[in-house]
Specification:
By secondary structure, the protein is an alpha/beta fold. 20% of the residues lie in helices and 36% in strands. β4 and β5 form a beta hairpin. It starts with a strand and ends in a 5-residue tail after the last strand. The chain binds flavin-adenine dinucleotide (FAD).
């Protein structure tokens, strides 16, 4: 575990209302596994306020660690909107078992919106380390403009062991074979991941989405040991 006071080194705008915040590693190692999370304390009106976030960076990124947050109307989000390079923070981590298996395996990732953060970390790690893990991602968003890490996901898809399908809730029609209108559901899982029974599933996103997809996967006959999940509390 590591824990220390530091400062934000960079803020990156992602999509409308979503920003990434980086902490330079400097000469620190800051070990973590792709998909884990860490704690970020900010000082707000003289009081410490702590939230936890998945690493959206991959351990292969040597210069910094990063988290990515949807900016809501919360006090904590307000502080993040005002944050700049140099803003004080305390960070502590890593934690969590939402991480890649050590040996090559068949994986399926089902994400909604901001739930992409730990999966971005894992897919970047698979690509950078040239791992043989076979990955299919179904990623749900409202529309194209709200796809976080869109350009980077397009680059990841160039790897033969990474397949990505987008689901756009507000789209009536779509113009690409890997973009689908509507929500991720059981039919989508069966049709797009025909070998689903052999895969380890990772669900991440708002509580309602994760709970709904968990039940649907269970009703396909998958045992609990084949389903990992990260419930992003605080979002609907
Ligand atoms: C493992 C994990 C990884 C996460 N990773 C990310 C990430 O990468 N990016 C991201 O944006 N968010 C992530 N979250 C969610 C994040 O921790 C915050 O809860 C979320 O950002 C909402 O914060 P807020 O400041 O917008 O709203 P808040 O005002 O803090 O919360 C909104 C509502 O949610 C409730 N709530 C907040 N936190 C919790 C909690 N821990 N348990 C129960 N209720 C709670 C509050 O009581 C409030 O009613 C993650 C959560 C978990 C559990």
């Amino acid at each position: 575990m590591w824990q220390f006071e530091t400062e934000i080194s960079e803020v990156v705008n992602r999509t409308p209302g979503v920003k990434s915040f980086r902490f330079a590693k400097k000469e620190r190692k800051l070990p973590y596994r792709a998909g884990q999370f860490f704690y970020v304390t900010l000082k707000i009106n003289g009081r410490n306020n702590v939230h936890h976030f998945s690493f959206s960076s991959s351990p292969t990124q040597t210069d910094y660690i990063e988290f990515t947050k949807r900016i809501t109307d919360s006090e904590y989000s307000g502080a993040l909107s005002r944050a700049r390079a140099g803003t004080w923070a305390e960070i502590e981590g890593p934690e969590g078992a939402f991480a890649l298996p050590a040996k090559p395996a068949k994986l399926a990732f089902l994400c909604g919106g901001i739930g992409i953060t730990p999966v971005r970390s894992m897919l970047c790690y698979v690509k950078d380390r040239k791992l043989a893990h076979d990955c299919t991602l179904l990623f749900g968003n409202r529309d194209r403009d709200n796809i976080i890490f869109k350009a980077e996901l397009e680059t990841l898809e160039l790897n033969s062991n990474i397949r990505i399908h987008h689901f756009l809730a507000e789209a009536k029609a779509v113009d690409s074979v890997n973009v689908h209108p509507g929500l991720i559901d059981q039919d989508a899982i069966v049709n797009l991941i025909p070998d689903y029974a052999q895969r380890l599933f990772y669900l991440s996103g708002p509580p309602s989405m994760v709970q709904a997809l968990y039940s649907q996967i269970q009703s396909l006959g998958l045992p609990a040991r084949q389903i990992k999940y990260d419930i992003f509390t605080g979002y609907r």
